[in-house]
Amino acid sequence: MSPEPHGPAAHGPRRPSTSGPHDVQQASALLARLRTDIEAGLTAHLDVTGARLVKLDSALQPLAAELRAYVAGGKRLRPLLALLGFRAAGGVRTDHVLGAALSLELLHTCALLHDDLIDAASTRRGRPATHRKFARRHAAASWDGDPERYGMAVAILLGDLAFTQADELWQDVDTQPSRLIAGYRVFTVLREEVMAGQYLDLEAAARRTRTRESALRVATLKSGRYSVTRPLEIGARLAGADDALVARLHDFGEPLGRAFQVRDDILGVFGTEGRTGKSTSSDLAEGKRTLLVAETFDRLDSADDRATLSAALGNPDLTSRDVDRARALMRSSGGLAATEEYVAEQTTLALDALDVLDADRDATDALHVVAAQLANRTS
Length: 379
Known about the structure:
The protein is mostly helical. It has helices at 8-11, 24-56, 61-71, 77-88, 98-119, 130-141, 147-169, 177-207, 212-238, 243-270, 273-276, 282-285, 291-299, 303-312, 320-333, 335-355, 361-375, and strands at residues 123-124, 127-128. Mean pLDDT is 90; it is low at 1-19.
C-alpha cells in the first residue's frame, strides 16, 4: 500500500473555513464529482460480484439483480461524507480510499434490508420491500413452504451478503497500513453503535418509553453517528488525521447527525410518500418513540389526547383518520414546532463547529452545502 499525501503540502496552502464566504458553486461541483465516482464504483463492484454469484449457480441471478436494484436510488450520504472527511484531513487521492466509502453504502444496504424485516415494511425507496417481493415470487411459482417465511429468509441472506461485501471493499483501500487499521477500527465502532441503537429503538417501542433522553440516544446511535459522524471520522483517519482533527470533525458531525435523524423522524409522519419512498404512517404503526413523540406527550394536557396518541402508537391497523388525529395533536400541542426547533438548533451547532474547523477549504465548503441539504430535506 502506498502512502497518502497529507497536510497542506498535499493540496496547496490551507484556507481556514472562517476566511470568507463559502464557494457554493465550487463545493457543488466537488460534490457532483464525488457522487459520480461513488456511482461508478458501486456499478463496477456490483458488476463483478453479480457475475461471481451467477457463476456459482444461475439460480442466484435474482439475488444479484435484487442487490443491484436495492442499492439503486440511494442518496450516497455516508460514502460522500467519508470522502469529504478524507479531503478535510488533507487527503488527495479519493480513488485510493473509495473502497472504504463504498463499504458504507453496502453496510447501509444490509441495515435497510434487515430494518424492513424488523418493521414489517411493505415498501422501500418506492418499490416493494425485498421480503415482500420474494414472498410474491414464491407464491406465484406455487413452491413448497410458506411464501412469507421464504421472503424473510431471502431478505436476511441478502443483507448478510451486502454486509460481507462491505468488508470485502476494504481490501481495495490503498493507504498506509496504520491508517487503514485506524479507519477500519472506526468502521467496527460504527457497526456496533448502529446495532445497539437498533436494539434500543425496539426496546423503547416495546416498553412504550417516551422520554426525550431515550429518543435522542436512539437517534444518535441508530442513525446520527452511523450516517454522519463516523463516516467523516473514517475518511479522516484514512488520510492520517490526528486525534485533534478527528475531535473537531466529531463536534460537527454529532449535532448534524442528530438533526439528520430527527428530520427523518419528522418526515416519517409528515412527509410525502412519493418523496420519502415509504409509508408516512409506518412510524406511528410501529410505535417508534421518536423525539417528535416525546415532545408531543410532554405538551399534551388532556388525558383523552394522551390516550388518543397512545392508541395510535404501535397500532398495525391504523386508519387514515387515526393518523390525521395523531398529526393534529403533534401540531396543536407544539410538539412538531419544538422538534423543528431542535433540528434548527443542532444544525446551527454543526455549522458553528464547521466555521472554526481548520481544514481543507474545498471540503469544508462542501460540508456546508451538505449540512444545509440535510437540515432542509424533504425526502
